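re: ur question from earlier - yeah i can do the single chain one, its not a big deal. heres the input i used so u can compare w yours
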Amino acid sequence: MSILWTIGYERSTLADVIARLADAKVELVVDVRAVASSRKAGFSKTLLAASLKEAGIGYLHLRGLGTPKSGRLAARAGRTAEMREIYEAHLEEPEAQVEFDEAVTIAQSRRAALLCYEAEAQDCHRRIVADRIRGRTGCRVIDL
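and the output i got, formated as tokens:
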């Protein structure tokens, strides 16, 4: 049975995130943020990709699997159920479906981790993506 990891960097440093990914022997980080920039040092797309590469970990940004702005606002306000509803509707969009299929293929063929901001996977859309991938592939999901 394959494994799909998820990781949130909200309460972590870049070094900690990379160490957890390396410990799990993750080969590829799949960034599922709509906006791959961050106020948190080291987590903007270009620097994150370079730091991961230096650690021997690949990076792929699947923007289409990110949460729309209205969903991000709901999540920030603690309205997780509303965020989930918005995100589930977003996943019906053609770009999201294409990128979801890509994520499924990756999960079946590589040691991959879905990355987003929120520390707790159950409060993040990456849990929805991971659960759907598990439903399609039967993989095990582990939150780092």
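The first strand starts at residue 3 and ends at 8. not sure if urs matches, ping me
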